[in-house]
Amino acid sequence: DGTDNVAIGWKAGRNVHGAQKNVMIGYQAMANIDNNPGDEISNCVAIGYQAFLGSDNDSTGTTTAANGTVAVGYKSLSGLTSGHANCAVGYLTGQNITGGDNNTIIGHLANYAGGNVHQTTAVGTSSLANATGNNNTALGYNSGDVITSGTLNTLIGYASDPSANSATNQTVVGASATGQSDNSVTLGNADVTDVY
Description:
- An 11-stranded parallel beta sheet has the order 1-2-3-4-5-6-7-8-9-10-11, with no helix packed on it.
- By secondary structure, the chain is mainly beta.
- It has strands at 6-8, 23-25, 45-47, 70-72, 87-89, 104-106, 121-123, 137-139, 154-156, 170-173, 184-187.
- Helix content is 0%, strand content 18%.
- The protein is built from no helices and 11 strands.
- The radius of gyration is 18 Å and the shape is elongated.
């Protein structure tokens, strides 16, 4: 029923009705996307087992607000129903994001918890894995994995984290560095002796 779609794999895009210009590769990739109210969802790429699976509930299913989604990896963005401008690459990346917007998530289990996160960037294995708060940026293995409800944090470096799971506006730079308080900048971990 849809046009200009590519579907490869068992039940890939099985409910496509009015969808257009989508690429669905893998077992059940985008399988539940186009049930009502998601008719005519378009410009999405889903590659991997249940990548961008969507919801098959006719009243609360995936909507066209999710146009332009890119999900690559096993169950990547599989729970997304209405968020737009999301890009996730890796095993279980953003699996539990449901309605978040403008997220870029790259790495094994990156931003796994998700929820309705917005404007989040997580790059690295398990970066922001438990975060449900908005506007966080983490770069590095396990960076920001302490965060749950925290917002507006910037974490750069292996295992860099804020001081608390609900931290706000903490900038933390350095391997294994830990923030000290909200609205602060921390450079380096406890072993750092000089800052130049």
